[in-house]
Amino acid sequence: GCGNSALSHDLHELGYTDVTSIDFSAACIAAMRARYARCPGLRWAVMDIRALAFPDASFDVVLEKGTLDVLLVEETDPWHVSPQAAAAMRRVLAEVSRVLRPGGCFISITFAQPHFRKPHYAQEAFGWSLRHAACGDGDAGAFHYFLYVMRKGQPL
């Protein structure tokens, strides 16, 4: 879910001219398509992350920034995620794995700490390696966020 984030445009401005962004909201996608109409390398599609309409092995990189957090937002105990939320997360991650090319990279940016997120990502079925790093500006009052990098075709 790209939402109304400028990330796709920022990537385009950095030289990544082949960027596809999705969101389940048709109104959001229409607004983003209109806002960035001058950037022909940006593509926008209404899509559900649980059932991606892309062919197998069609992306070198899949990037999500907080989208997966939505699947767990109603969970009351991050140590014990409900079977429904865990299944939704597996379904999305299986779709991401399916659309990644061999050697492709899945990047996830979230506030979710490794002890909560790694159990979802670190599954042999997805066929990827897993690394993570804590990020932040070093300010004692700042929240840290986490960068997870999965590489398709490398051992877990």
Number of domains: 2
Q: Which strand order do you get reading across the main beta sheet?
A: 3-4-6-5
> Residue ranges: pLDDT <50 for 5 or more in a row?
none
Give the structural class.
alpha/beta
Number of strands: 6
How would you briefly describe this protein structure?
GO terms for molecular function: S-adenosylmethionine-dependent methyltransferase activity. The protein has 156 residues and is α/β, with parallel strands linked by helices.
Structure description:
- It comes from Emberiza fucata.
- Keywords: Methyltransferase, Transferase.
- The protein is of the alpha/beta class and 156 residues long.
- It has two domains: 1-47, no CATH class; 56-152, Vaccinia Virus protein VP39 (Rossmann fold, 3-Layer(aba) Sandwich), CATH 3.40.50.
- The chain is built from four helices and six strands; from the N terminus they run αβαββαβαββ.
- The strands form two sheets. Strands 3-4-6-5 form a four-stranded mixed β-sheet. Strands 1-2 form a two-stranded parallel ribbon.
- It is globular and about 45 Å long.
- It starts with 6 loop residues before the first helix and ends in a 5-residue tail after the last strand.
- The mean pLDDT is 95.
